[in-house]
């Protein structure tokens, strides 16, 4: 995939060991307070960089694990935390997008736009039929996100044929609990959601009915899926306009 450049930012795959180390360094800042974030999945993934070409400042990174279809979903990072047996029958190429993070000192909406433009180009070039991964909320306290979880419960649960089941020991079953308000405040709910998850949902994505409490990364995360064929046509055109 050729580099994608829009405005101040360009997206490309890591091409050298030094590129990988830059990606890992940003992940360390975002997920480990500076500690080492590398794991056994890194060698099987391709690593995307969104950077300022002139300064070489890395603005965003994420990794992609391509799968031939649902029969390989047990190889994914997400499968450590969720029972994904329902997705084993999914036909067509899938890609797990993981460790998505943006430099916390940068607040430019174009970073996310370029990242999704690069993903769109990759999806089109590879014929990917589903994107999936874990969308993370900062911290492990559920109370601050109850409106967000209530909105996910009411509007964005996975279809029953793909619904992930509980596998992790420590989970928050937001689709069942009475703690999530029956009438969530929409503005507060959206503010509480990570930008990556909001983008997934705007494209027609869906989530698991529970969140995993990940004390290793100090996050709450939900399994998130997006069937490419379900993306609204207007949204697909906008993404392809960025992808070029």
Short synopsis of the structure:
The protein has 244 residues and is of the alpha+beta class.
Q: Tally the structural domains.
A: 1
Biggest pleated sheet: 10 strands, mixed
Unreliable stretches (pLDDT < 50, length at least 5) are: none
Strand content: 25-35%
Query: Which structural class fits the helix and strand makeup?
Result: alpha+beta
Element-by-element helix/strand order: EEHEEEEHEHEEHHEEEH
Q: Count of helical segments?
A: 6
- Return Rg in Å: 17 Å
CATH architecture: 3-Layer(aba) Sandwich
What's the rounded overall pLDDT mean? 95
- Provide the CATH top-level class: Alpha Beta
CATH T-level fold name: Aminopeptidase
Helix content: 25-40%
- What's the CATH H-level superfamily name? Gcn5-related N-acetyltransferase (GNAT)
Number of strands: 12
Give the distance, in angstroms, between the N- and C-terminal Cα atoms.
Answer: 12 Å
Which term fits the overall shape?
Answer: globular
Overview of the structural elements:
- The chain has 244 residues and is an alpha+beta fold.
- It has a single domain (4-243), classed as Aminopeptidase.
- It contains 6 helices and 12 strands.
- The model has no long low-confidence stretch (mean pLDDT 95).
């Amino acid at each position: 995939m050729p580099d994608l450049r829009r405005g101040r930012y360009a997206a490309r795959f890591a091409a050298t060991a030094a590129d990988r180390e830059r990606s890992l360094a940003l992940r360390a800042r975002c997920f480990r307070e500076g500690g080492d974030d590398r794991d056994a999945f890194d060698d099987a993934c391709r690593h995307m960089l969104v950077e300022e070409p002139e300064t070489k400042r890395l603005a965003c990174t994420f990794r992609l694990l391509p799968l031939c279809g649902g029969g390989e979903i047990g190889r994914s990072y997400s499968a450590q935390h969720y029972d994904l047996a329902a997705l084993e029958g999914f036909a067509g190429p899938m890609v797990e997008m993981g460790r998505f993070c943006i430099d916390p000192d940068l607040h430019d909406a174009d970073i996310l736009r370029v990242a999704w433009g690069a993903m769109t180009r990759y999806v089109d070039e590879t014929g990917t039929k589903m994107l999936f991964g874990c969308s993370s909320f900062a911290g492990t306290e559920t109370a601050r996100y109850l409106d967000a979880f209530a909105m996910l419960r009411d509007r964005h649960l996975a279809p029953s044929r793909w619904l992930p089941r509980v596998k992790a020991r420590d989970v928050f079953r937001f689709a069942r609990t009475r703690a999530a308000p029956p009438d969530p405040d929409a503005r507060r709910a959206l503010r509480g959601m990570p930008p990556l998850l909001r983008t997934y949902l705007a494209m027609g994505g869906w989530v698991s009915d529970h969140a995993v409490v990940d004390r290793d990364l100090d996050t709450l995360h939900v399994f998130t899926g997006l069937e490419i064929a379900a993306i609204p046509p207007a949204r697909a055109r906008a993404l392809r306009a960025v992808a070029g």
